[in-house]
Amino acid sequence: MLHKTLKPFPDYFLWGASTSAYQVEGAALEDGKGPSCQDVKDIPEGTADLSVSVDHYHRYKEDIALMAEMGFKSYRFSISWTRILPEGTGEVNPKGIAFYNDLIDECLKYGIEPIVTMFHFDMPAALDKRGSWSVRESIDWFAEFAAVLFKHFGDRVKYWLTINEQNMLTLVGPVIGTMYIPQETDNLTKEIYQQNHHQLVAQAKAMQICHEMLPEAKIGPAPNISLVYAASSKPEDVLASQNYNAIRNWLYLDAAVYGIYNNLVWAYLEELDAVPEISQEDWDIMRAAKPDFIGFNYYNTATVAASDGTESLDPAADQQTSRGESGFYRGTDNPHLPKTEFGWEIDPIGFRATMRELYSRYRLPLLVTENGLGAYDSLEEDGKIHDQYRIHYLQDHIAQIQEAITDGVEMLGYNPWSAIDLISTHEGIKKRYGFIYVDRSDDELKTLKRYRKDSFFWYKKVIAANGADLTD
Ligand code: BGP
């Protein structure tokens, strides 16, 4: 559809950006914080460890002042579970509560709406020792944590996100350092989908508790959604794209929104003898819960062809690189799309296609919780960072949000990754995403000084014009 006139961004549109606790805060074991799985994992060679990250824990005031200077209407950050409950359950750490109280108040001081992710890739190490998401108790652990958050921060936080990228935890958990693998298992797929099931129920419980405790608040999931294209118009390729769309995307949202398992995923799990154990109570909890909006992270689309029976899951595949599974789909490159320096395809039009599809399937407002370009940036001698490539990426994607709004999609906001440079999930700080540059490398902490990138000044202008001027 070629629109003659584009509809404007709504007045309430939440322009901002995102971070996550373990990637930005540092202070990994300070002020009573317990270790999370990220603090005890093996650090990929040549990448930064997470003990200091970019020191947001000590510099959040300066960082939020910079976000306010850009005109942010929202800041999406995650709360570290083990800063609040060092052992994952039980005793609350008052210093952890104090830190997030201060962070929230600092945002509100500038009129920045805090958007809080409850869980972003950082399972408490103490709970991993107790079986992590494998065991049913994990549903209660998460519900306990959720209630603590709502109790302490619910008077000021109106937007909540449950689990960041649950689909990536399930599909590529080992690459992002989050996968808990029990020592004895003869069917790893079943084990993974059992963990996934417990997360679905835990999320549903958290949504229910949120609505009971905070009737004014809004809560939603935050999966990584990439529309999956068929590699050709060959009918077998189209079926493969439906398979991977269901496995990668719809499983998570059909469960969150409708409390059901997607039928193609169910058939896939049956084929693999990996249907999880589901109690009647689980179904009841899932069906009773309903999100208020859908938060989603978008980096690019995926493309798949029919399986030729030889595919096996590539253990190095990450959130956005192609994969395949014998009998179901075969990941391919899309010859129409360019790639980033880190090998991720770039597809702004696919962003619009993804928003259209999401809205027509679920009819809930959409909040973009991540989108962005990971690149090698360089700090010039005059203190400038010329990240034109990032401006172009963001321009093209924001333009597609306006197309989607004109298509009739209800959009709540745009919170790209990331507000400030931080440590990537598995590629260190050399892969930068921020509007704010941080002076550190993977092996040296340097000054940790903050610098405004060219994209900082550009985004400030975009926000001031409420998206009506994207030019640089
Ligand atoms: C998402 C995660 C983020 C973030 C981002 C970029 O999958 O939610 O935590 O890191 O992707 O990914 P990466 O750091 O692997 O480049």
Automatic annotation (TrEMBL):
Keywords (A to Z) from UniProt: Glycosidase, Hydrolase
Chain coiled-coil ranges: none
GO biological process per UniProt: carbohydrate catabolic process
Entry annotated with the keyword RNA-binding: no
InterPro entries, A to Z: GH, GH_1_N_CS, Glyco_hydro_1, Glyco_hydro_1_AS
Species in which this protein is naturally found: Streptococcus chenjunshii
Lineage: superkingdom: Bacteria
Renumbered residue ranges of the record's region Disordered: 310-330
Protein name (Swiss-Prot/TrEMBL): Glycoside hydrolase family 1 protein
Pfam families in the record: Glyco_hydro_1
Any Gene Ontology CC annotation: cytosol
MF (Gene Ontology): beta-glucosidase activity
Classification via PANTHER family: 6-PHOSPHO-BETA-GLUCOSIDASE ASCB-RELATED, GLYCOSYL HYDROLASE
Family: Belongs to the glycosyl hydrolase 1 family.
Active site: E370 (nucleophile)
